[in-house]
Amino acid sequence: MKKIMIQDMPNHVGETVKLGGWLANKRSSGKIAFLQLRDGSGFVQGVVVKADVPEEVFVTAKGLHQESSLYVVGEVTKDERSAFGFELQVKEIEVIAEANNYPITPKEHGIEFLMDNRHLWLRSRKQHAIMKVRNEIIRATYEFFNDNGFTKVDPPILTGSAPEGTSELFHTKYFDQDAYLSQSGQLYMEAAAMALGKVFSFGPTFRAEKSKTRRHLIEFWMIEPEMAFVEHDESLEVQEQYVSYIVQSVLENCKIELERLGRDTSKLEQIKAPFPRISYDDAIKLLHEKGFDDIEWGEDFGAPHETAIAEHYDKPVFITCYPVGIKPFYMQPHPDRDDVVLCADLIAPEGYGEIIGGSERVHDFELMKQRLREHDLDENAYAWYLDLREQGSVPHSGFGLGLERTVAWITGAEHVRESIPFPRLLNRLYP
Ligand code: 4AD
Ligand code: MG
User: Fold this and answer.
1) Which segment of the chain is annotated as a signal peptide (predicted)?
2) Are residues 72 and 151 located together in one domain of the fold?
3) Ligand 1 atom 27: residue of nearest CA
């Protein structure tokens, strides 16, 4: 008997096959039982007709508990009514292991209960769909950068420096030295760009941020491209191409998942380069016009400000050239103004906030030394980083895309806690 996975059923119509799976849900009457089966690759309905199977098979089907594991044998048939398009006409059932009192029943549950049971909650249809979309974004990311001449480089997780400011660092001992969990691989990616030209990283990053919002995780995954000989405007073009590519890849390859999530795909279909750009100066003016009197030039935007700006557009929008005072030390000054830097944040539509932060980097040795001093950063800890400016320095730019915020936006999830398998939040380290 051929053992297949649910996702392969379309290639086996009319054949009798064996599936390993779990019982996601069940409905039955005296004559027929509908088993909702899942095997990780997908969900399918198994139909057990009393008149067509031995008595004990029907009795077993009727007695199954949610999440019991099974082998089932049956014939693959087409079924136009289901989203998947196929069904299994069950002939045999072998129970592998019973599940008892599975806590996540088809009724509604509170979020804290679901989070306490995250290890089981991952099995549900919606969470399964979000993880599949997350995987597609990662797959499309590798494809996009590999197709465009980038080399994947892995920066360290344990570091001695803090690119995004020292207040949000996780500290640990490194034998008799101090070390920090990486907030961003950027500085190492700059070194890698000087060796390999165009590089990208994908890895976990850590921020001890005391923020409890739907956009903040303590541990999140970031994609960080860095490009030698690429200036600010050219970097924005790469960013809009990249974001368009992942959205269009999800639309093409995750149709079943987007439907299961109830995502309005017409909004995603519009996500094609180019994206609009608005300067920080004009964004402040726009906010004042919209009645936000609480923000002045020189201050950073909060979530309500970003949402108000994003509402103006049906695509992600770049806010460019922020004041030098609210951005990190490494950003290249504007050529005509000393109060703003060559940077941009990309704000997602529909209230999902900043998904990318990026900039051109200071490449002048003297200016970089001055910036380190101004930011009270230890020149010894950054000696290697300064070296990059002394040994054939070139203009270069890069950016970081937060994976979980991007997944939340594309799937329409309410909160980033659903866009990572095991979220680390302010008050949560379990499971
Ligand atoms: O804007 P950020 O802090 O930029 C950097 O770290 C740069 N060094 C990246 C670079 O240029 N290579 O973070 C980049 C992105 C944000 O736009 C956001 O999407 C995400 O990382 N991010 C978070 N996501 C979830 N939880 C948090 N606490 C996040 N902090 C940042
Ligand atoms: Mg940022």
Assistant:
1) none
2) no
3) 216
